[in-house]
Design a protein that fits this description.
single chain, 2 domains, Alpha-Beta Plaits, five-stranded antiparallel beta sheet
Length: 305
């Protein structure tokens, strides 16, 4: 009997950091911002009387980096609720947050930070910014709006990475420590003690060695973030019992947890879940979770606090 439900297959052992992998269909790879991605997400609805709810950790991997690196400027920004990307853009471009252009200042600062977390290079950053610029041009043409091109250079992207690490030197120290660890032992650990084998760091092939070094600085962050999500998932049943027949778990998509929630319990469920997700793991800085809900996966709006 058809349930009109999408029933993908999941694998837990494919991605070393602990992220879920899905196939047939890969519901974890439906983009948020493309036209087709939005259309597909809008087609994924929940039964009448329910809302599709998504609770997402804000900048989880960047917060994990702040915790493990103990960089003073990162810790201060997150403890004081400062916009980390606006702060970075001010340091890199010398432009105050109030005067920053999103595409020209905040986007490259944000992209640089997340690329560093992933172990990326200046070439990778150049490709990310070039694609973002191509998307901006397409959107402007589609809306009939004026478009002023921004031309990024690859050497400029390498300077962005150097400037970002100069802004947060504790991150550079953390990366160097992970490089030393993997070069000595052929392994690297996340802050929960999970060990990753990277023997290719001893390979004669320079590309393989460089890849292992990038993995050594990225895997502990990505893995630590996923452990935080998994720990929250493990205790979700403790609050589900307060909402019998009203809340059903649906999916984990990277750093967010998705549920099917009856409209009448949305606010109390939002409060209970956010508290659980923000307090199950304690870091040097606060964890922040944002809840959104809507009739479909593609029509989510922020839930008022």
């Amino acid at each position: 009997m058809s349930t009109h439900r999408i029933l993908p297959h999941f694998r837990l052992t494919v991605i070393p950091t602990g992220r879920l992998a899905a196939y047939d269909p890969n519901v974890l790879a439906i983009p948020k911002h493309s036209d087709w991605g939005r259309r597909i997400r809008k087609a994924i609805i929940v039964p009448k009387g329910f809302l599709f709810g998504s609770w997402d950790y804000s900048q989880l991997e960047m917060r994990v980096m702040a915790h493990v690196s103990q960089d003073k400027r990162l810790l201060q920004a997150y403890c004081q609720g400062i916009d980390i990307h606006a702060q970075t853009a001010q340091r890199i471009f010398g432009v105050k947050p109030a005067d920053q252009d999103d595409s020209l200042h905040r986007l490259p600062a944000k992209s640089t930070g997340f690329l560093i977390l992933m172990g990326g290079t200046g070439r990778g950053l150049y490709e990310v910014l070039s694609k973002a610029e191509s998307d901006r041009k397409r959107d402007a043409e589609k809306k009939g709006e004026a478009y002023t091109p921004i031309v990024w250079q690859e050497d400029e992207c390498y300077r962005f990475i150097a400037a970002w690490l100069d802004t947060y030197p504790g991150v550079r120290d953390f990366q160097r420590a992970r490089h030393k660890e993997v070069e000595e032992y052929g392994t690297v650990r996340d802050f929960y003690g999970r060990r990753f084998l990277l023997p290719q760091v001893w390979c004669a092939n320079r590309k393989l060695r460089d890849h292992a070094l990038r993995q050594a600085q990225a895997l502990p962050i990505q893995s630590g973030a996923q452990v935080i999500v998994k720990r929250a998932e493990a205790v979700v049943p403790s609050i589900l019992t307060r909402f019998p027949g009203s809340v059903y778990p649906l999916l984990q998509v990277h750093d967010d947890l998705d549920f099917e929630v009856r409209r009448r319990v949305l606010v109390p469920w939002d409060r209970a879940l956010r508290h659980l997700m923000e307090t199950t793991t304690t870091l040097s800085i606060p964890l922040v979770v944002e809840g959104k809900a809507g009739r479909s996966w593609g029509e989510l709006e922020k839930i008022p606090l």
